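Cast an eye over my tokenised protein here and flag anything odd:

===
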Amino acid sequence: MLVYYAITNAAALTLGRDPARKLPVQALAVIGLVGCVLLAVNLPLASVLAGFGVLALGAAWYALRPARH
């Protein structure tokens, strides 16, 4: 989950500034990204390794699946 939210916050950093909105979008994205990273580095090592293992399996499954037209 933290990887998903970190990617989402990093993607939000690419949004342009909208003068019609009063919210500081980039500042909120930075705070969210920093929060995800801080939470991730404070997890037990076994949890981090298990999470990376699941991500690696998902990436391998995606890369090796047959292409559908």
